[in-house]
Structure formats: structure tokens, C-alpha cells
Specification:
Helices cover 30% and strands 24% of the residues. With 170 residues, it is of the alpha+beta class.
Length: 170
């Protein structure tokens, strides 16, 4: 049986668990995602574009944090996943966690930020079709650097993942 959000909120409140006020799904913000209606379809994108900005001081630690925040829980990131993993691998070759990075690595981070500001790949359809007769495809690819997989549902990428190959594989 369906239960209204008011009943759920009341039950949670009885147990000392506060809730946010209810909002329409089309206006919601969930786990850093902003939802919105685009051309009759519910779509998600980054809630806070300022998360794209590189940290003021670039160290190995701040690059790991920044790259993690760029891709952490977003279902679709396209080219950003392998690139942020590669930046982390390059940063791991530097000195200590708190030492400033090289000018070359800083330039790569700035190039990535500029590209993200113009074409952030972290966006997509909010839900896949409930109709199981729709075509589902799993795409896989590998190279000497990385391997990845994407789930396509009814012509749209629903989720993607990518992993760098282990250094010993090279």
C-alpha cells in the first residue's frame, strides 16, 4: 500500500529522526544531484558547480580529494572517470601528501577544470524505463591504461564505471 510522505515523516519524527520538508521530485536535490525537467524528461546534474573548482593549494592530498569529489557518487561521468583516476596516479608519484605538486601537474588540473566548466559529463536521466522490454546493453572496453563498462538502457547511458589497470600490468 502507498503511504503519504506526511505519514512517513510523522513516524520518523516519533523516533527522533527529523526530515526535510517534502518537495516535488522535479525540484529535489539528492546526494549532491540537482533534479530538473528537461524536455519532458527528469534529468540530474551536479548540484554545486563550484565543486568543479580546483583547490587553492594543490598537493597530492588535495588532488585525491578533488578528483574523488568530481566522480564519487555520480552514476555517469564518461571521460571524467579515467582522467581523474589518471591525475590521482600522477599525483601519487609526487613527494609527500602535503607538498605542493609540480607545475606540469597543476597545468593538467587547470585544463581539466576548464573543460569541466564548459562540458561537464556528470549528468543524465534520473531513472531508467520501468518497461523491461526496452533494450539494455552493456558496453565494455579496455586498453593498456584502463578498462571500463557502461550500462545503456533504451539508448541512454544509465551508469558507467572505469578502472585504471594496475601499474604491474604495464
Amino acid at each position: 500500500p502507498r503511504t503519504s510522505t506526511k505519514n512517513v515523516a510523522a513516524a520518523l519524527h516519533q523516533h527522533g529522526l527529523p526530515t526535510k520538508p517534502e518537495v516535488k521530485l522535479e525540484e529535489a536535490c539528492v546526494l549532491g544531484l540537482k533534479l530538473g525537467d528537461k524536455q519532458g524528461q527528469l534529468r540530474w546534474e551536479r548540484l554545486d558547480p563550484s565543486s568543479i573548482e580546483i583547490p587553492a593549494v594543490l598537493t597530492r592530498r588535495s588532488i585525491f580529494q578533488w578528483c574523488g569529489a568530481l566522480t564519487a557518487h555520480y552514476p555517469v561521468c564518461g571521460w571524467l572517470r579515467p582522467l581523474s583516476s589518471w591525475l590521482r596516479r600522477l599525483a601519487s608519484l609526487t613527494g609527500s601528501w602535503y607538498q605542493p605538486i609540480s607545475k606540469e601537474l597543476e597545468a593538467l588540473c587547470r585544463d581539466l577544470m576548464a573543460r569541466l566548466l564548459s562540458e561537464d559529463p556528470a549528468h543524465g536521466a534520473w531513472s531508467v524505463p520501468a518497461d523491461v522490454s526496452k533494450e539494455w546493453k552493456v558496453w565494455c572496453d579496455a586498453s593498456s591504461i584502463a578498462y571500463g563498462v557502461a550500462l545503456e538502457v533504451d539508448g541512454r547511458i544509465a551508469e558507467d564505471k572505469c578502472w585504471l589497470r594496475h601499474k604491474k600490468d604495464q
